[in-house]
Design brief:
This protein has 423 residues and is an alpha/beta fold. The chain has a single domain, classed as Aldolase class I (TIM Barrel), CATH 3.20.20. It has 20 helices and 9 strands. The longest helix is centred in the middle third of the chain and has 22 residues.
Length: 423
């Protein structure tokens, strides 16, 4: 046996990622993760910041492209492989992987584990180039902030530090929960949001690796609440910029509310209600954010359950980024090949562990739909080790959906664009 073949057999990415995620010994897990990251770097796969691409958008150097930011809540290694396959088919470079603060908790995926799974998937599928990994909705919890502001912000700073060390070079700060609509003046409404986002930006700049400008996002409208306005945007940005020291690079994008809800609105029969999104508002917010503040544009959250025809509109109104999560989760759970026995186990788990989340008048279908994401952490091993044939079918369904999203968001053939602006 040749030395090259021996080395290849010794380095088995499937075995290493299994060890990195499920290994009983912390030292062995860390070693497996280290080997995966080294293998990725050795072949030209590296975590990167999307900052340069969004700065180019802010300067009007490209148009009509919306970057899909994909949250992976389950079987991350396998789903990431499907994403890379879809991307490589159409030469897609402008796409990112993300996980929210809340998702890190209920899916039981630390930033280090998440990043390792994504890089292992890139190695397995033969991807090359920058990989954008993002901390989504690093959100200030309103109740915790009111009780102890310093402790809540320290918790977020620790999460940011852990994330950057893991290779998350894109961080979305969400202090929109602190917007006070009881105030009549818009600047006063956005004051705490501006202040906290500026504080987190300063912190990120103080710890980001040398030579890397972490892409930071802000948010002006809490998703599921009233639609954002141009006046809200200006009030936030003016307050935010006043609190940034000279020479400190600010945010690269701004998340807004235009009518969506995270996960969609589920009807009593378990189907998803049709939502009307305000694309005119999204267009106006993107335009002002670019022309007046040099940002890449506005970001749309809660979009994965929208009808397919809506996705064609995002590039047309110059949305810089769109966040996608629940729709992919639904493909997994609703697949015809998803084991019925496992689904019943998950429902029993939800009945016990999420019973306090059941709302008055909510049907069983609505309850399961709204809470089933909470099962991913405790059923991580069962989902990871589904029979290969089931995995293959579900991943094929996901890959087809990722391909459709890439086409509709107009990110086909963006690998060269990314190479041009991302260093």
């Amino acid at each position: 046996m040749s030395e090259q073949k021996k080395a290849k057999e010794k380095f088995n990415v499937d075995n290493l990622i299994e060890q990195a995620v499920f290994g009983a010994d912390s030292g062995a897990k860390e070693e497996a993760s280290r080997q995966i990251k080294k293998a990725a770097l050795d072949v030209g796969i590296f975590p990167a910041s999307i900052q340069g691409l969004y700065e180019a958008a802010g300067k009007g150097l490209y148009h009509g492209i919306t970057v899909p930011a994909i949250n992976i809540r389950m079987i991350t290694y396998h789903v990431a492989r499907a994403i890379f396959r879809a991307a490589m088919k159409d030469n897609v470079g402008a796409f990112s992987f993300e996980i929210a603060r809340s998702e890190i908790g209920y899916t039981k995926q630390s930033p280090a584990e998440y990043a390792t799974c994504v890089l292992a998937a890139a190695v397995k599928e033969g991807f090359r180039g920058p990989v954008f990994i993002q901390g989504d909705h690093y959100q200030v919890r309103r109740a915790m902030y009111r009780e102890n502001p310093a402790a809540e912000l320290d918790d977020i700073k620790k999460l940011i530090k852990d994330s950057i060390e893991a290779g998350f070079y894109n961080i979305d700060i969400d202090a929109s929960t602190l917007v006070d609509i009881s105030k009549t003046d818009l600047s006063e409404q956005q004051e705490k949001n501006s202040q906290v986002t500026a504080e987190m930006t300063r912190f990120i700049r103080s710890i980001e690796p040398k030579g890397i400008t972490v892409s930071v996002g802000g948010e002006i409208g809490e998703i599921g609440k009233g639609n954002s306005t141009v006046e809200d945007l200006r009030a936030f940005m003016d307050g935010y910029l006043r609190q940034l020291p000279k020479g400190i690079k600010g945010i690269s994008k701004i998340s807004v509310q235009t009518g969506t809800t995270h996960g969609g609105i589920v009807l009593p029969d378990g189907s998803i209600a049709k939502i009307s999104i305000d694309f005119n508002t999204l267009k106006a917010l993107s335009k002002v954010s670019r022309e007046e503040y040099g940002l890449g544009g506005a970001v749309q959250h809660g979009a994965s359950t929208l009808p397919d025809e809506a996705f064609d509109m995002f590039p047309k109104v110059e949305t810089v980024e769109v966040h996608l999560a629940t729709g992919f989760q639904n493909i997994v759970y609703d697949s015809t090949c998803f084991p019925k026995e496992l689904l019943e186990q998950i429902h029993r788990y939800l009945d016990v562990n999420c019973k306090n989340e059941r709302k008055e008048g909510e049907t069983t279908e609505q309850f399961y739909y709204n809470t089933r994401k909470k099962a991913f952490g405790d059923f991580k091993k069962e989902l990871w080790h589904l029979p290969e044939a089931i995995h293959r079918q579900i991943m094929q369904e996901l890959e087809e959906r990722f391909t459709l999203m890439f086409h509709k968001l107009n990110v086909k053939n963006t690998a060269d664009l990314v190479k041009k602006y991302v260093k």
